[in-house]
User: Fold these one by one.
Assistant:
Number 1:
Amino acid sequence: MPSFSLITNSSEETFEIAFKLGKMLAKGEVVTLDGNLGAGKTLFTQGLARALGITEPVTSPTFAILNIYTTGDVPLYHFDVYRISSYDELVEIGYEEYNQGDGIIVIEWAKNIPELEYEERLVKIDIERLDGVSENTRRITIKTYEGKELTCLY
């Protein structure tokens, strides 16, 4: 998987990177987000959603597990799998129904479901807080499938 990293120094910069990425996403792609608590996974999803034309508030689906946003140009299916421990559990809550290519899927805490690494059209995001630099400094590492060009992000 081709990859690169970016450093952001504010929540606004992190949102902007997500917004730019969101403009380059296509139906059927799966975006996974990993990072510690407070790293900015939901903020990143908000930037993606705004790029897709979603105007409603985007919140973490931690307790609901799935939030669906259809007010934009493309449906956004936002999963939080923090409390899920297997791919079978993800399928039980309807993952395959939403992975039919009509929208974009975002999955927070994807490292909990290793099978997601095998998604065909995967864009993998890791957000890391850089302690000792600034409270708002993040390293965002983006890995994508062969053929997905993201050069305008850096």
Note: Residues 3-153 form a domain with the Rossmann fold fold (CATH 3.40.50.300).
Number 2:
Amino acid sequence: MKKLNTLITDLKPVKIVGNENITVTDVVCDSRQATAGAMFIAVRGVAVDAHKFIDKTIEQGATAIVCETLPGQLSAGVTYVVVENSTIALAMIANRWYDCPSEKLRLVGVTGTNGKTTTATLLYRLAQELGYKAGLLSTVRNMVDRKEYEAKQTTPDHLTLNRLLHEMVEAGCEYAFMEVSSHACVQHRIDGLKFAGAIFTNLTRDHLDFHKTVDNYIAAKKMFFDSLPADAFALVNSDDKVGDVMLQNTAASRHHYSLHTLADFNCKVLEDRIDGMSLLMNGKELEVQFVGRFNAYNLTCVYGAAILLGLPADEVLVAMSRLQPVDGRFQTFKSKHGYTAIVDYAHTPDALVNVLSTIAEVLNGKGRIITVCGCGGDRDAGKRPIMAREAAMRSHQVILTSDNPRTEDPEKILLDMEQGLDDDLHRKTLKVTDRREAIRLACKLAQPGDVVLVAGKGHEPYQEVNGVRHHFDDREEIMKAIE
């Protein structure tokens, strides 16, 4: 429990009606969770305006209301705090409710189109390898030291995010690493948090169903860097032209990593194999259990961030050699019939190109690439023909299939993808709507030395059809198919 005037310390209320000194027993933004003595924060969402539920929460016992406009009739014994933006207020209040947990951790955020999950997860595992307690907030899972929680969003909602950070503090964690999505920036989910560092991986077309334009997408990512304090670090990929855009207005110290240009942290791929790579990291040789240049980028920014956090370079390199790939990110399966199957989360054109280019480099013309891919429903339809074209151009055989159609007709999604294929690309493309059958067919077509890539869903253990999630795991389906 906390006093209301303590919870609103960081706000600049437009008006307060009622007693500021009341005790708040809980903070909620879901009207269904309001109980006696609770504070209800009425947020204007995309689909629902929670202001219409204010009276309901008061009936359930809420005694403090944070809102942008006062209801027509005020209730006796209830304190109303009027703010300009209740979403920002929610972030600030959530931070205070959980005792400002990010100030007691060394919190590092990772943003970008591709590589967020791998980078954040590897930093978490690296800290654990070096003997530190750490937390992780990612698309795949949330970890409080070694205790796992289900991840429902790339970046959790305001209250869940601060609660998990608070639990990390209580568990004795020194570090925390989290993915920072563009949605989270725009929706102010990270407002009020104190970051020790921020990482930018890259930026390519994604989430245009939400942001509408690439410029808006870039601006959303940049909000994160613009908000960093002077004692934080900002580490960006200098091989991506958007990297320096992120640094334009930041107060944080500025650092770069690169595979191609002189930077604070440099990496060169000495050898790329299907089971790992040999790297030259800032002049020191390193063997890792990762494949592909995109992973070389991920590992370079992991190394850079670790050094910027003050961890000893030699110990970091030794620990990095022991790290293993993240679930569903270039995860390999060997068939007794001599081919290799790979599951990867690649669900953007750029990510798909990276994975297919990596496979082609490793095969060096000594095997075929058979790709299974689709596109999610209710998302950016503009990337569908691009995805199909990139897959067909870089594979010997492509099987277009259903991804997470959500509320869309999967056949319609596949037709959209086919628009990116000319006659030549069409001739090496098959269409199998059932994803399980598509994976089975790909494995049947594979010969010794070939690689089957199943792209798009990666770690996800479900397929969402007509708004309902059914159990479906690409990794399980591959294991069945190769047996």
Note: The first strand starts at residue 2 and ends at 3.
Number 3:
Amino acid sequence: MTKNQQPFLVVFSGLPGTGKTTISTMLAAALHAVYLRIDTIEQAMRAAGAKQIGPSGYAVANGLARANLLLGHSIVADCVNPVRESRLGWGKVAAEASAELINIHLICSDAAEHRRRVDERSADIPGHRLPNWSSVMRHMFEPRDDDHLLLDTATMTLADLVECCTTYVTSKLDRS
């Protein structure tokens, strides 16, 4: 980000096991952006004694994003983001901070590969319980009607996925 450029908010969405964390952390590092992960926030809330998380994790993430955007820091957010309400929340944050909202949605079209990823991954957040395959398949994902980049992580290399995301973000910022 150049000194005169407004901060931006990149929101990664998709089911668990599609590659959001891997790709979003690499993109955040490449763009020198603050990285926010819903799983980290929600696990911290559980560790602090919260019994029910519900939309509270997204509310905390939205608040952290807003505060950092207002300080001029760009954000890369990593979340499932399955419902219109959560997507509208990110849009509201970006608007309040005069930041460009950039949505990236990841899927894995190869069910066997997706299941392998879900079954073989290990928790990287202390105390975090990863969802199993049946839990991932029960996720309800409302259709999208917003502007977003859709990437299939089963059909591209990791390097190509990160490059595609970087190019997309850059193109969105060049147009704003």
Note: The mean pLDDT is 93.
Number 4:
Amino acid sequence: MKGILKIFILFVLVYGLSGCRIWRDTSYVTDVELEIFPDYKGVTVPCNIAPLNFMIEDADHVQANFMAGSDASFRIIGKDGVIAVPEKKWRELMEDSKGGTLSIEVSVWSEEWPEGVTYTPFNIYISDDEIDGWVAYRLIEPGYVGWRQLGIYQRDLTSFEETAIVTNKADDGTCLNCHNFPAFSSESMMFHARGANGGTVIYHEGKLSKVDFGDISPVKSTTYPAWHPEGDYIAYSSNTTHQIFFDEGRQPVEVFDTASDLVVYDLKNNRLITDPRFMTEETLETFPSWSPDGRYLYFSSYASDTLPVLFSTDIRYDILRVAFDPETGTLGEKIDTVFCAAEDGGSASYPRISPEGRYLLYTWSQYGTFPVWHQEADLRMLDLEEGGDADVSLWNDADQADSYHSWSSDGRWIVFGSRRLDGRYTRLFIAHLDEDGNPGKPFLLPQEDPRHNVLRMKSYNVPEFIDGKVELPREAAEIFIPKQ
């Protein structure tokens, strides 16, 4: 009798603890569109992406039926309103669904629907195009002047693994910024360390070094980088940057340059290559970027005979390009205008060429050169082969800034920073571009717990695709710490 009683008690306990985790039948079906966070409805994703876990607000119980084609693949019962798919199941589903459609039917029990409601399934399109395994970015508070803990991190896009590449935990007075890689390589990396023992840290061909450009003639600061795809040169803009603050309106701050030039660092010979055309006070050159073959240098440029000392909304940047000879390290004579602000309107920043050389993606804003604080900032794209604009308006948010962006190594994906969730924090979105140039709906970087996207009080800054995990030598964390 005692044995039977124990079994009964155990059954009650197990049933009671797992009752909310039992698959249920709903009393209602609705064709009302389900609101989920993040919004993964109708997105195109790479077949090797991490699980697209999502949540339904105010749900007491939630469950989802994942279907590939007409066959039910598996069911997931949620917890705390979150649908979280085990990574192994998700990888199997993605492999089986390549080039096809994944349909997800969600049922919800809530105060509004105490007897449960099943929503019309929504679709996710699984592309045959894989995405680069990793993306690197800086995590920083979205402030204007100071910082506390910040670092450059990397995320495995096929899972939820995030690791630090380098941080300022050893000395929080050091600012780390402007990380860059040649041709998506995780074997080479550079970043700036601003502080008492700062400099430009370069890891290349297995060697770690710190360059103080104050010791190289001509003495120029180095700001925004672009590492040549062959690895022997790094183009920099040398910027004198200022900020102004507004006491009214939607935009709190404007960042602008009063001077900026172009220089090219020759890694092999430890020298700066300059050109007098890009070293004048009358023109501002910034945001350099190489063509995939390394034969052209693109950059944003503003020219005026009366350059204002303070910021003006009349400052609008063109996109120019100049030929480059990697053998001699020289820039060509002809300067081409790719985007003309006077003719096309607005101002262009962050020119980035797709890996096959066909498209030029840039950030458009009404004026200026630091669009992350411009609510109107959008991504725009030029078709360099056929000429004219390529329509990527699907990637943009109407009310908040869409700014820094980079291409995947095959040109089928972009990652970009956007403030569309709350207007303050920049978060990462990924979008597809098919072989015909058709854009897919952007999706938020997947997280194991979707609430992480809004609970992390950091902005994602300067996302760059890389081909693997960066493993810097241990000395990298100490190379810029002030000596005692």
Note: The domain at 134-477 is CATH 2.120.10.30 (Neuraminidase).
